[in-house]
């Protein structure tokens, strides 16, 4: 197995192919454990993991908490709404105070792109990016890769179509970077107003489409993304109904993909908008497999960054 030397996980863009495979392979071992009756290891016993989420979350926050506890760590959830952030304390001061409490890792979700990078440069505590603005969501990209590899047996050579609000999607960005690094063809598809300019520069295998039917043609993996209404501005979208009619994933559209194509969605789902509920709940959906994979992948990430943090702080060997 390749060595891992990152004391922070800030984005897929910082990872080599070897780093990505390190996480996926480690997650396989944790995945087996999470299916046993006694799901606990002690590798992070005595360590402290803090969840610091400035945006709402169900899957990511909960699975980091479950992952930390299954590794034996103490996990603390800090809610900015009830913390001294409401009194004007800055993000950096908040992180420094958590560091003073001897947190080994801080899992940070923040609406500002680059927030995890900003604080990581100024703390000895490991920072794990749990989603920053429209920038990156690296553990989502990793758990999606883990799910694809388990379902398809490989990632290299697959055609992965990602459809929806690409412009605001940190999931799309991390997925495009990661799939490209592992040799999949990545097709990004959405209305012109919801695809960033130069999106194809995310990787040599990335192509951009503005018709979902074209993007899905012959795909092995189809991932629908939510319209991020909280980040939309101006006239980016005519109407939700119009979007569902032209970009919604339904059975007729999915028929263009390979017969064994899998259907993915990072959640939360807006049923009947970006995806027909019958597909979300259907035989080809792996949406809840993605959620299950999130725990094993986040166990692998927490274990890896804390060990690398120990080496950085001179506490022990990797
Ligand atoms: N996929 C994802 O990030 O979901 P949550 O916002 O619920 O964490």
Describe this structure in words.
With 318 residues, this protein is of the alpha/beta class. The protein is 38% helix and 14% strand. The chain has 11 helices and 9 strands. The protein has helices spanning 17-34, 59-70, 91-100, 115-120, 138-152, 170-181, 212-216, 240-247, 251-254, 277-280, 287-312; strands spanning 48-53, 74-78, 105-110, 126-132, 159-163, 185-189, 206-209, 221-224, 262-264. It has a 5-stranded parallel β-sheet. A 4-stranded parallel β-sheet has the order 2-1-3-4. Helix 1 (17-34) packs across helix 11, helix 2 packs across helix 11 (287-312) and helix 5 (138-152) packs across helix 6. The longest helix is centred in the C-terminal third of the chain and has 26 residues, at 287-312. It is globular, with a radius of gyration of 19 Å. The model has no long low-confidence stretch (mean pLDDT 94). Phosphoric acid mono(formamide)ester binds at residues 57-60, 131, 140, 266-268.
């Amino acid at each position: 197995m390749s060595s891992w030397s990152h004391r922070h996980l800030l984005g897929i863009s910082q990872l080599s192919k070897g780093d990505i495979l390190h996480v996926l392979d480690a997650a396989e071992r944790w995945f087996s454990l999470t299916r046993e009756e006694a799901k606990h290891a002690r590798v992070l016993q005595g360590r402290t993991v803090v969840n610091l989420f400035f945006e709402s979350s169900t899957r990511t926050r909960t699975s980091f908490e479950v992952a930390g506890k299954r590794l034996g760590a103490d996990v603390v959830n800090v809610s900015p709404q009830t913390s001294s952030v409401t009194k004007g304390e800055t993000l950096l001061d908040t992180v420094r105070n958590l560091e003073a409490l001897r947190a080994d890792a801080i899992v940070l979700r923040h609406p500002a792109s680059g927030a995890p990078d900003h604080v990581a440069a100024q703390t000895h505590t490991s920072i794990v990016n749990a989603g920053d603005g429209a920038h990156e969501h690296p553990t989502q990209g990793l758990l999606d890769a883990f799910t694809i590899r388990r379902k398809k047996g490989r990632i290299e050579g697959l055609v992965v179509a990602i459809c929806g609000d690409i412009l605001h999607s940190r999931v799309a960005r991390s997925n495009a970077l990661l799939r490209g690094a592992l040799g999949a063809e990545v097709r990004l598809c959405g209305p012109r107003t919801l695809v960033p300019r130069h999106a194809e520069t995310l990787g040599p295998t990335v192509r951009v489409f503005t018709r979902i039917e074209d993007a899905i043609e012959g795909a092995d993996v189809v991932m629908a993304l939510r319209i991020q209404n909280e980040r939309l501005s101006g006239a980016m979208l005519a109407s939700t109904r119009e979007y569902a009619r032209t970009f919604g994933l339904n059975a007729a559209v999915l028929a263009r993909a390979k017969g064994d194509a899998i259907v993915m969605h990072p959640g939360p789902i807006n049923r009947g908008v970006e995806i027909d509920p019958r597909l979300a709940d259907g035989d080809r959906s792996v949406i809840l497999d993605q959620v299950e994979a999130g725990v094993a992948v986040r166990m692998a990430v927490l274990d890896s960054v804390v060990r690398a943090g120990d080496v950085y702080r001179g506490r022990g060997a990797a």
